[in-house]
Structures are given as structure tokens and as C-alpha cells.
């Protein structure tokens, strides 16, 4: 990445973007120095951000592109890594059995998300308990921090100075609605969803107004 050829390409692109400017020899040298500094900063940030990336190799167990290989050669080293990082979460013997069943079922060569949805929709979460936990664990690890940052921004919008007396339960519920907006939109396509929510809200506790009316 930090090669003279790369620097030259970056500088050339920068000068083309600002073609109306005149570049002297000194300007070009300064531009190269600046480009080196920018690339050095990027390299350092990449190294810092991905220094623990090797620890995530254990999640290759759920990489559907490798299932065919694991069918003939089960990856015990990744299973042991999983044990080292999450010693009290998984029953390894049962997980290995469930993974072997998965690897021997080509029709289930699915991504972690699709696999979990398949288990959920077919009421197999109790049958494949360890596999479902592994799928959920993989899905909970964010690729970037942007989603977490968006969630924190949403919290600031929900709990403002004027809403400072909001209790934790209400804050948690409103936050869940905000974070899972896509799921909420999908649920709201069901014509009975709104009525069911209103009925549930009305039956939760006594209200000052009647929210449920009987048709006589």
C-alpha cells in the first residue's frame, strides 16, 4: 500500500480533481508528503481496528461457503477456539453433532441469518439449541461500529432534557422500537397488527378512558 506507485496514482488523481490549479515542483513534493502521511494514518487505523480479527476465525464454523469442506474435514481447531473464547456458553459435544448434521445437509447450506430464520420458522430452536446460539452470536457481532453509533444517537433523541424523568422501562421499550424499525415496518404490514397492539395496550391495566368498546 505504501509504495511509490500508489503514491503517484493518488497524487495524480488529486491533481486531476483540482485541474484548475497550477502545481509547481514544490507543490507536488508537498502533496506526496501529505499523501504518505494520510496513508500512514490509514494503515495504523486498519492495524488497530483489525488487530483482533484473527480471534473471529472461529466464526468460520458458520460460513456456508466452507460447509462442503467441513463435511469431509471437521474444523476442530475452530471449535476449540470457540471453547476458549466462550467457555460457559456452549455444550461443545452437542454443538459438534449439530454442526456435523448441518454440514451433511446440502439443503441447509445457509448464511447464519438464513439458518437462524430457518430454525425459527420450523420450530427447531430447541432441537438445534447450540447451533441456534452460535448463529445468534455471529449475528450479534457488528461489522462496523456505525450501527452502535446510530443507536446512541437515537437514545439522545428519545431521552431529551424535557423527557428527563422517563423511567428505564419506557426508555428501553422506545429504544427497541427505534432500533428495530425495519422489523416494526414489516409487522405493520399485517392489517391486524395495529388492532392487536391497541387491544394489548388496553388490557394491560385500567385506563382513565375506555379503550375497549362492546358492540351490542
TrEMBL record:
This is HAT C-terminal dimerisation domain-containing protein. Transmembrane segments: none annotated. Residues 126-180 form the HAT C-terminal dimerisation domain. SUPFAM superfamilies: Ribonuclease H-like (SSF53098). Pfam families: Dimer_Tnp_hAT. One of its GO terms (molecular function) is protein dimerization activity. It comes from Macrosiphum euphorbiae (potato aphid). It comes from the Eukaryota.
